[in-house]
Amino acid sequence: MTVFSVESGHEQVVFCHDKPTGLRAIIAIYSTALGPGLGGTRFYPYASEADAVHDALELSRSMAYKNALAGLDHGGGKAVIWGDPDKDKSEPLLRAYGRFVESLGGRYYTACDVGTYVRDMDVVARETRYVTGRSEVNGGAGDSSVLTAYGVYQGMRAAAEHRWGTTSLRGRAVGVAGLGKVGKHLTRHLLDDGATVVATDVSERANTWARETHPEVTLVADADALIREPIDVYAPCALGGALDDDTVPALRATVVAGAANNQLAHPGVEKLLAERGVLYVPDYVVNSGGVIQVADEIHGFNFERAKLRASGIFETTRQILRLADADGIPPAVAADRVAERRMADVGRLRSILLPR
Fold first, then answer.
1. What's the number of domains the chain is made of?
2. What is the maximum span of the chain, computed from C-alpha positions, in angstroms?
3. Model confidence pLDDT, tens digit, residues 25-41
């Protein structure tokens, strides 16, 4: 996808460069039909500028659909900072980025994502009002991965009900690809529910955490090995593109529900999954707990209220799966239709002008 391609449809894409700090960022706003764009900032060492642009475009589009299905009055936006967060991140760089966010005048609210953390949002917030995911001591909601994982677990429960007639994962084997911020919390939910967890991560630090904290978790070499394990549920919780023409035929799980954004490598993979009898729950349906949490922060954060709203992911997932069955379409197509209908129907109300 390129900025001006027919399939893009983005309202605004901003390139942000501050040479003294080394900041190279791209802010993509897909839609503000439902309200200001809301989505995290990803700090990642992309191989090329084209890869960074592509990620910003894809992720911002997903955020629009995610926010629509979550019932939020927010459109879709996403930012990427091109660089190595372990080497390039600094206070001046983050503050420079915050000034670029502020310059958009509230069209885009940012938050944490891969490579950025609560402490980073506290720094960004020193230059802009339009930031969420700050620490509690600074009036924020704290770590949004807590409710992201909770929402994925709720979606997984709905998928289990649809496939096996029970909302419990007890006795099921779940493969978690990625033991980062979300994967760790999800693993705890699954173990508490009586599931068996098989996991992998590229970080030895994450694997060490699993060995020391949850020795009952079985670790495998990599994602390729994980999909070949005799698991019931596959939960991609790292970067996107986990499901493609090569992985789908090798997948042994019959349910896919995970936290990673853009899990399908390209359009059509959802049909391959359906043809193999794999129940795929769209990522942007189940991983919206985090954005529900940070959206709540904008209006004065209350964790119990945000958790209650995130609990609704169970019912949303259930409705999407039932609609897919009724219309004879993959769940991904059903979810797209519901999100697009809300963006069109509610977004149309903006044409009713209000007095200033």
1. 2
2. 62
3. 999 999 999 999 999 99
In the 8-state DSSP scheme, what is residue 348? G
The model's pTM: 0.89
Determine if residue 180 is labeled as part of a ligand binding site. yes
Helix H segments across 104-193? Answer: 118-124, 145-164, 181-192
Tell me the residue range of the domain where 279 lies. Answer: 145-287+316-340
Res 8 pLDDT > 70: no
Residues with a catalytic annotation lie at 78
CATH of the domain at 236: 3.40.50.720
- With tokens 């004065």, the residue in question is 300
For residues 123 and 211, membership in a common domain is answered with: no
Domain finish residue from 110, 138, 166: 138
Q: Is 183 annotated as a binding residue?
A: yes
Under 8 Å between Cβ of 167 and 160: yes
66: annotated binding-site residue?
Answer: no
Do the annotations mark residue 182 as ligand-binding? Answer: yes
